[in-house]
Input
Amino acid sequence: MATTMMSGSASDAHAMADMREDLAKLVLRVSVGVMILLHTWAVINGEQAIRDTLLRWGMPVGLAWTAVIFEGIAPIMVILGLYARIGAWMMTFWMVMAFLLAHVDTGHIFQLAENGVGWRVEGPFFFLACSFCVALLGAGRYGLNIGGRWNN
Amino acid sequence: MAAVTAQSNEDLGKLVIRITVGVLILFHAFALATGDTGIPNNLIRWGLPPALAWLGFLAEFGGGLAMVLGAYTRLGGLVVGVFMMIAIFMAHSGLMGAQNHLFMVANNPAGNHWDHYFLETQAFYLLGSFSVALLGAGKYGLNIGGSWN
Output
């Protein structure tokens, strides 16, 4: 390994590029996965936002528990590199639903944050975009690497 | 054919992350340029001239624009990433009288239950920017900047 790193051939340049890509994929999937799990833990512990949204649309409040799947199991798959693309598509679906049910008709997507600094929904949008991104890019090498093309 | 599809997905993924980080940080650059006092107040707390906030504006605006356009994208990602490291160090790490937010959770918009990492937004900018620096722009963009893009 050390000798190939130093020889500087074209294939080594490719290896370096792959390493950078794999590192970026690791950074993205772990950050989006870990941070959404905090939201899920809050839902499990009785945080009301999703339930209030479901009530507003006349939907069964119990649907909030699907959070355990879409923002619980799915991000764990993403973090581990276990069918990560499937997990990331599930998270993407979840965030699209969050936007459709909570942020479009309320007008949030057309507003700045309450202190005027930044877009009002930049947090949810980061979750949406980063999940979509992981679904497109795959998990890279740094993980369990299980699932073939559904992971990497 | 499968390889071609994978490649176009890669380029689309790179586009999504760099447009997201780039456009969203431009909102912050705009706020700073139109009188937001967050960064100037932090500089004052550190005994530094508040005019240094314009360096922050340059990082946010220049870095964001580079990422959006796909011109020197990696450099833009690196600049915003380093800027975010400085911001988190100066404003959120418990130094010079600031509260330490590194290991805190914060409340939901209704303010009645914690539901996210306190520095969630900052972490997305920091890690998203470094990801852009590592990934590069992909093919959808101006494609200016050689190995820096």
